[in-house]
Amino acid sequence: MMTRSPENFLSKNKFIQRSKFTKSIVPNNLTQRTIPYPLSLDCLINIIEYLKNDRATLYSCVMVNRIWCKTSIPLLWYRPFEHQMIGKEVRILHTYISCLNFHDKAELIDHGIRLPDMPNPIFDYPKYLRGFDNENFDRAIEDWMMMLCLTMDSDYEIKVKLCNRIIGNLLFSRTKGLRVLKIDRGEIEDSCLMNIVNLNTEISEISEKEINYNYYYEAFSELEKFEIKFDNDDEEKWMLNSEYKARICSQLATYSRSLSHITISIDPFRRSPPPPFIVCQPIFELISSQDKLQFLDIEEFWDEFTYTAIFYSSLQSQSHSITHLTLTNLTEFDLLLSVLVSCVNLQTLEFLMVPEPNFDYIINPRKPLSVKKLISYDARSEPQLVTQSLGIIIMMANKNLRALMLFEVTSELIDIIGQNCPNIVDLYLTMSTSSISNLLPFLPSLPLEYLFLWEDHSMPFTHDFVHKIAKSIPVTLQNLEITFDMAPEVMYNFLRECRAKLRELVLRVDGCDDEFLEVVTMYAKKSGGYLRTLKLWGLGIKFSVEAVEEAKKTIPRIVNLASYPLW
Question: Hey, which residues does 451 pair with through a beta bridge?
C-alpha cells in the first residue's frame, strides 16, 4: 500500500487547526475539556508498535496530533518495499525524491526524468528505513519509470540504473541502521547493491559523485535478518551475479555481527554448474562471524566434500545459540549428527529433503538431541531412506520432542515414534490408511493438544475402523484436523465416541451439506459448548444460510478454507 506523507493533509484540511497552547492538532468542534488526558509517550509508543502491520490504522494515527504523527511515521516507513507495489503505490518514490539534494535532482533532470513537484518534506523519511527488499525496490523503480512513460526512450535502461543508484544511495546513506536485508532476484551489477560489493574499494577508484562509504558501515552494523537467493535467470551472468552476491556476504561478515536470522537459498530450477569455493567461502564466513545466530535456513548447492565439512564447521561455531535449523539437500549425515548433538539450544529442526544415513555411524553410541520440534517435508519415492534418517534423529531426541510434522510416514517410522516420543503435544502426519492402524495403540497415552491426520484414501473407512480411531484420541486433545472421507452418519459416530472436548475442528471432506453441519452442531452442544471453531475444506460443499445461522448459535466461528463460497 502506498505510503503518503502528511504534509498536504496538515496544510489543506480546513477541519484541523493547531492549538497555540498544546501545539497539537485539534478539531475545531472540540474544546480542551473534551480531549482525554494524554497518554505518556512511552505508553503511546508501546500501543502504536502493535499497529506495525496495520497500515490503514497507522495512516489515521498520523492525523491525530504531532506526537502521534511522529510516533507513527517511523512505522509506516519501516519497510516500504516489503511487498510488490501495485499501480499508484509506486508514488512512494516521489516522497523519497523530495528528500534528495539539489545535485542528485539535477542529475535526474539532466537525463530527461521529470520529477514531481513536491514540497520540502517535514520528515527525513529515509532515516526510518529499517528493512530493504531489493527485488521489490527494483520493480518499483521500473514501474515508476513506466508511469512516467519513459519505457520507449532509447536510454531507458540507463535511466533505470541511474534512478536505482541515486535513490538507493539516498536510502543506504540516510538510514539509521537496517534490521532486515533481503536480496532476491535481479542483477546486482545494475543496482545500488554494487555499493555494498565495493565497500573496500580504494577511494581513488570511486567516482566523486559516490557517497561516503562510512554511511554503509552504519547501515549494516545492526542488521538482524539477512535473506539472499542465488538465481540464474540469465545463464551467462549466473557466475558473475553469484560472485557479486558472495562479496555482499563477505562484506556483511565484516560489518554485521549481530545477525540472528540468515536464509541462503538457490533457484530450484537452476541448471548452472555448482559454484566454486570463491562463492561458497563468504557464505560460511558470514555464518561463523555472527555473535549469536539463532535461525539458519540453508540449501547445499555445492558438490564437494571439502565445502560440506567447512559448512559444518561454521555451523558448529553457532552451536551455543542456534535455535532453528532449516536444511535442504545436505549430505554427510554423520557430520550433521555430530553438530546437532552440540546444539544445546536447538528447538526446531526442519528438513525439506532429509540427508541419507551413513550406515557406519548408526551402530555407534549416540548422544541425545535437544530438538523439540521436528519437521520433514520429504516425500521421495524411496521412503525407506527417509525413515532411517528420521528414525535416528527421533531416537536421539526421544523425550525432548514436543512436536512432529512428517510427510509420507511409514509404518516403521510410526513404531519408532510410538516407542521413543512419550511427550508429543503437536502431531501432524500424512500417511496411508494402513499406517494409521500402527498409530492407534500409541495415541491414547500421548498428551496431545493438536492432531492432524492426512490419509491417502487408499482404503475405505469402515464403521469399526472409525470407532477405533475415535476411541484412540486422547482426552487432552483440543484441535483436530482430519481428511477422512466420512458420510454424516459415520461422522456422527466418530464424534460421539471421541472422548476429547475439542475447541477447534478442521474437516477436509468433500460433499458436506446441511446434514453434515447438523451432526457437528449436535456434537458441539453435547460437549458443553467447548467447540468454538469449525473450518471446512473440500469439493462440493454446500450449506443453506439457515443451517449456517443455526450452527453459529453454538459454534461462533465457521470458516471457509476453500476459495469458493460454502453457502
Answer: 427, 480
Give the domain ranges of the chain.
1-76, 79-222, 425-567
Q: How many residues does the chain have?
A: 567
Question: What is the rounded distance in angstroms from the CA atom of residue 344 to the CA atom of residue 315?
Answer: 13
Question: Which residues 6+ apart lie within 8 Å of 260 measured at CB?
Answer: 224, 225, 290, 292, 293, 294, 295
d(CA 450, CA 462): 24
Cβ 73 vs Cβ 128: under 8 Å: yes
Residue 80's closest CA among 65, 60, 99, 96?
96
Residue 545 class from Cβ within 10 Å (0-12 exposed, 13-18 middle, 19+ buried)?
Answer: exposed
CATH topology of domain 425-567: 3.80.10
Which amino acid is residue 220, in one-letter code?
Answer: F
Q: What is the DSSP-derived secondary structure letter of residue 204? A: G
Residue 203 and residue 240 in contact, taking contact as beta carbons nearer than 8 Å? no
Neighbour-count burial of 11, counting CB atoms closer than 10 A to its CB (0-12 exposed, 13-18 middle, 19+ buried): exposed
DSSP for 385-425? Answer: HHHHHHHHHHHHHGGG--EEEEEEE-HHHHHHHHHH-TT--
**Rounded to whole angstroms, how far apart are CA atoms 521 and 174?**
58
Give the whole-angstrom CA distance, residue 398 versus residue 526: 38
pLDDT of residue 155: 80
Half-sphere exposure of 541 (CA within 13 A, CB side): 24
Q: What Cα–Cα distance (Å) separates residue 427 from each residue in 264, 273, 388, 473, 509? A: 28, 39, 19, 12, 20
| Integer Cα distance of 232 and 239 in angstroms | 9
What band does 20 get if pLDDT is binned at 50, 70 and 90?
A: very low
- What cell numbers appear for 164 in the block? 536505482
For cell 539437500, what's the residue? 329
Strands, E assignment, 112-266: 131-133, 180-183, 225-230, 261-266
Helix axes 488-497, 463-472, angle to 10 degrees: 30
Helices (H) and strands (E) in the chain, counts: 22, 17
CA–CA gap between residue 6 and residue 69 (Å, rounded): 8
The residue ranking higher by pLDDT, 192 or 223, is: 223
Least confident of 156-160, 369-373, 404-408: 156-160
- Other beta carbons within 10 Å of 338: 14
**Confidence category of residue 206, pLDDT binned at 50, 70, 90:** very low
Average pLDDT over residues 480-495: 87
Helix, strand or coil, per DSSP, at residue 562: coil
